[in-house]
Amino acid sequence: MNLERGHTFSFSPDGEDFLLDGEPFQIRSGEMHPARIPREYWQHRIRMAKAMGMNCIALYIMWNYHETRPGVFDFHSGNRDIEAFIRLCQSEGMWVLLRPGPYVCAEWDLGGLPSYLLSDPNVQLRTDSATDARYMAAVARYIEELIPRIKPLLIHHGGPILMIQIENEFGSYASNPAYLEELRQLWLKGCVTGPFYTEDGLPQLERNRTTVAGGAIALSNGDVAQITTVRREFPAVPAMAGEVYPGWLTHWGEPGFAGINYDLSQTLIAFMQSKRSFNLYVIHGGTSFGFYAGANVDGSGNYQPDITSYDYSAPISEQGVATPKFMKYRDIIGGYLPAPLPDIPDAIATLECTDIDALMPTLYASIWDNLPTALPREQSIEPQSFESYGQAFGFVLYRKQLQDFTNGVLDISNVHDYATVFVDEHYAGGVSRTRIPREYAQPLHVMHRAPLALPLTLPEHQSNPGGPVSLEIFVEGLGRVNFGPALVDRKGLLEPVRMKIADGPFSTLKGWEVFLLPMDETFIVNLKGSCSNPLKPGLFFKASLVLDEVGDTWLDMSNWTKGVVWVNGHNLGRYWNIGPQRRLYCPAPWLVRGENEVLIFDLHQIKAMPVELADTLN
């Protein structure tokens, strides 16, 4: 396929077909997200999709990955260069479906919306300017930043972008035609005239009529029968299956990885026989590195954070391997095409893990010896959310002196999302917003939202029984909810902390010291190797991985409890012993020949344990 200047993309007058250069065109798209793939692997993953029979790549742009602070954008560093990814698609002969949001879902923190929006206690997300002008002003700034980057890449300017999606699955959130039209007008104002399209599940589309003027319609979990239904109800524009699921997302604490047994064979046969357009969500998932994995809330209100891996049981694995699904689907799709498919790219090399001894980390530092200056007390008469302090991710420590303490019960039931509690250097237990299987929660005395009984007897080194003690609540923010009505999901202590001493009533604790611990690149670079109390959980451990050659690998964290891993300063993401994920993917480009630094922060362990290397996710 030659994607040179001069192509056109449009819709047939009767709305039946997508047209490329005036001829009916079947979009065979595979979705992948540049933010979840090391830049060095972009080309490999695009070529893998092409080898499975795709002619198009769909991609989300995660707004919060590019604007981390209001007005401060990054479209250049690491894997953030969206323009380069799209040009790479074009150089590989692939068209592009662009899904820039502003909301994307994607099992990504806050569905891609920047967390700084939540610093406004009255914010309303995903709504028009008449309802919340501040939200739409931020959206306008984002789209205005995108337009000069995207416009040259549109098909009528010689680029590979066929269509731009307006918002995402809005019918699952609300019905507000003014909002969708306002988004469309922002693009038009920048002389980006489409073509546009929307994405929704069929029931939501039928209920809320969430389309835009002249825009095509894509269906979540769509198939040929649903496309036929949409063609009857919306005959003026073409329809496609915009998200066809070859796998599914997985939450922490679930019994296994989701979507393993999905088989799309019959669905793909129907698409190919009918020549209907489709997008596989996802053909390759990659990894939600760092703190970007999102979360859901189920029908009973239970908070469900997503695992770090976005393998998704997709045809192309987290590491880029052609799975059995890939081979089956390639054979199906290729059987309907006139020309042979390109060869499958060579697999990415993995480390020979059997030749490498298990890493044995050693104690390096304590978070308690790396606290920044506390915020002024007047900012925290009562604890506030991360967002109110201007912090997006990581941890916050809330500290207060208690007078005349003997024992008590602490109520922090509205913690978002996981807290470890200390009374004068002594770990007293934890509180989790997530339901944790009993076999993991009980040994750590971690409660699910319930009030936490503080120790009746303080440690022997307590020098003044019955006197003042220090209460410390160390809070981890997990992924923000990325789907549904509970989207406004702030982190930290969201309600006043209450406590009762002995048999007395609950009273509110006021006057807190607050320490912001984003665990970002700057914090990790400046971490001091100091630990004055190795018995107090909240410790960093370090190991050296010496390599003659580099290759992809996984760090098996089965012997650890809950925390984060960095390799040479790159945040691999979260681990948690409740599973099902126990291995973290480390791509070869983040390793070097010679010595590599592995840094582990664990919320609970005070004893280092071995870390095995592995060559698969599970």
From TrEMBL:
<keyword id="KW-0326">Glycosidase</keyword>
<dbReference type="InterPro" id="IPR001944">
    <property type="entry name" value="Glycoside_Hdrlase_35"/>
</dbReference>
<dbReference type="Pfam" id="PF21467">
    <property type="entry name" value="BetaGal_gal-bd"/>
</dbReference>
<feature type="domain" description="Beta-galactosidase 1-like first all-beta">
    <location>
        <begin position="383"/>
        <end position="435"/>
    </location>
</feature>
<feature type="domain" description="Beta-galactosidase galactose-binding">
    <location>
        <begin position="539"/>
        <end position="596"/>
    </location>
</feature>
<dbReference type="InterPro" id="IPR031330">
    <property type="entry name" value="Gly_Hdrlase_35_cat"/>
</dbReference>
<dbReference type="Pfam" id="PF01301">
    <property type="entry name" value="Glyco_hydro_35"/>
</dbReference>
<comment type="similarity">
    <text>Belongs to the glycosyl hydrolase 35 family.</text>
</comment>
<dbReference type="InterPro" id="IPR026283">
    <property type="entry name" value="B-gal_1-like"/>
</dbReference>
<dbReference type="InterPro" id="IPR019801">
    <property type="entry name" value="Glyco_hydro_35_CS"/>
</dbReference>
<dbReference type="Pfam" id="PF21317">
    <property type="entry name" value="BetaGal_ABD_1"/>
</dbReference>
<dbReference type="InterPro" id="IPR017853">
    <property type="entry name" value="GH"/>
</dbReference>
<dbReference type="InterPro" id="IPR048912">
    <property type="entry name" value="BetaGal1-like_ABD1"/>
</dbReference>
<feature type="domain" description="Glycoside hydrolase 35 catalytic">
    <location>
        <begin position="18"/>
        <end position="334"/>
    </location>
</feature>
<feature type="active site" description="Proton donor">
    <location>
        <position position="169"/>
    </location>
</feature>
<keyword id="KW-0378">Hydrolase</keyword>
<dbReference type="InterPro" id="IPR008979">
    <property type="entry name" value="Galactose-bd-like_sf"/>
</dbReference>
<feature type="active site" description="Nucleophile">
    <location>
        <position position="243"/>
    </location>
</feature>
<protein>
    <recommendedName>
        <fullName>Beta-galactosidase</fullName>
        <ecNumber>3.2.1.23</ecNumber>
    </recommendedName>
</protein>
<dbReference type="GO" id="GO:0004565">
    <property type="term" value="F:beta-galactosidase activity"/>
</dbReference>
<dbReference type="InterPro" id="IPR048913">
    <property type="entry name" value="BetaGal_gal-bd"/>
</dbReference>
<dbReference type="GO" id="GO:0005975">
    <property type="term" value="P:carbohydrate metabolic process"/>
</dbReference>
